[in-house]
Specification:
Blueprint: E1 4-7, H1 9-22, H2 27-42, H3 53-62, E2 72-76, E3 80-84, H4 90-108, E4 110-116, H5 125-132, E5 137-142, E6 162-169, E7 172-180, H6 185-193, E8 203-204, E9 210-211, H7 214-219, E10 221-222, H8 228-243, E11 267-272, H9 280-296, H10 311-323, E12 325-328, H11 329-341
Helix pairs in contact: 1-2, 2-4, 3-11, 4-5
Length: 351
């Protein structure tokens, strides 16, 4: 087993901010991007956390991501907005889109925002919890490069296309669900960098055969999570993020590896104000009731306890905030080597 190194939360934040500053990202945008990466790492979503920093730097260097771009509202109705990200920094744009949906929901009870010409936004829970912490239900989705095959297929049709929601609970932390509809390429890449195999039923190789070899999986195609379920939800994400906005969806989304052109992915944000339905307090009580009911279910054989969505991530977050964020030493060196290859000065961060 590879050795593990640990960085404190403060060290990890300093590392991200330092690298983003070297790439010319304005301080405020660098802070939002850092918070997004740090949130994923703290919650245990390591494949979408700090290890993704080289991806941002690579795309900034290529011109695919253009720091300093603001959300441009192309069209706005009483409860809806169509926005253009102008190839800006994904986390900054996604936060702005979610906050706009929140503002619309305050006015109308519902706010829906579709964002085109966005960029990679990372793990979605970071955005979904923003309205939940203000007593509202938040939902968001993002589409991506079509590397996931339809059920029964051997070529990509849609992206990993994550979807997330968060809801307030009475007297507790929000109920948070965040999952990709297709198996994530980032996790396969993480397995490759750490020199381990992937689980079965995640990917097919070039010939359309099931594989547990991470390199063969990256050269082949990913599978939808849960078969028909992931397939259907993956298409829904494309409709929300691309179809509604008249932007790229499905096989129209450009390959993420083509760094000389805009990525073309989209983001969708939906916020509902419980005050316009059964009431804020009642909704929070019902959410808490569902979460507590889940936790009260007797666990099945081989399971220690039943958790509500977000429980495991929250427990890990509390642990890592105290003990630091662990990194596989081999993968940490890969991250630093990639950044160094992109012209970043990271010598002081080698462990």
């Amino acid at each position: 087993m590879s050795e593990v190194i640990t960085l404190s939360v403060a060290q990890t934040e300093e590392f991200c901010m330092e690298v983003l500053a070297q790439a010319g990202v304005p301080h405020g945008e660098a802070l939002v991007c850092t918070q997004s990466l740090l949130d994923a790492s703290l919650r245990g979503v390591d494949s979408h956390g700090v290890a993704m920093l080289p991806t941002y730097i690579e795309r900034i260097r290529s011109g695919q991501i253009v720091p300093g771009k603001e959300l441009l509202i192309r069209q706005e109705g009483p409860a809806t907005a169509l926005c253009d990200g102008q190839q800006g920094l994904g986390p900054v744009l996604a936060c702005a889109a979610m906050d706009l949906a929140l503002a619309l929901a305050r006015q109308c009870g519902v706010g829906a925002v579709s964002l085109v010409d966005c960029n990679y936004v990372g793990a979605l829970a970071f955005y979904a919890v923003r309205p939940a912490r203000q007593g509202m239900l938040g939902l968001c989705a993002a589409n991506s490069t079509p590397r996931v095959a339809p059920q029964g297929g051997r070529q990509g049709l849609h992206g990993t296309n994550p979807i997330a929601y968060a809801a307030p609970t009475e007297g507790g932390e929000p109920l948070v669900f965040d999952a990709a509809t297709g198996h994530a390429a980032a996790r396969v890449k993480q397995a490759l960098e750490e020199g381990r195999s992937i689980a079965p039923n995640i990917a097919l190789d070039r010939e359309g055969r099931p594989t547990t070899d991470a390199a063969a999986a990256l050269a082949g195609v990913l599978l939808p999570v849960g078969g028909a379920l992931g397939y259907g939800l993956g298409l829904l994400v494309d409709l929300l993020c691309g179809g509604l906005a008249g932007g790229p969806c499905g096989r129209d989304v450009p390959p993420v590896t083509e760094l000389k052109q805009p990525y073309g992915c989209g983001f969708f944000a939906l916020v509902l104000d419980p005050a316009r339905f059964g009431g804020v307090e009642h909704f929070a009580e019902r959410c808490a009731f569902l979460a507590d009911s889940a936790r009260a279910i007797p666990p099945a054989a081989g399971v220690d306890q039943v958790r509500a969505p977000g429980d495991r991530a929250r427990q890990l977050q509390a642990q890592r905030q105290q003990q630091g964020i662990p990194f596989d030493r081999q993968r940490w060196q890969v991250v630093l080597d990639k950044l160094a290859g992109l012209g970043m000065e990271v010598g002081g961060w080698r462990r």
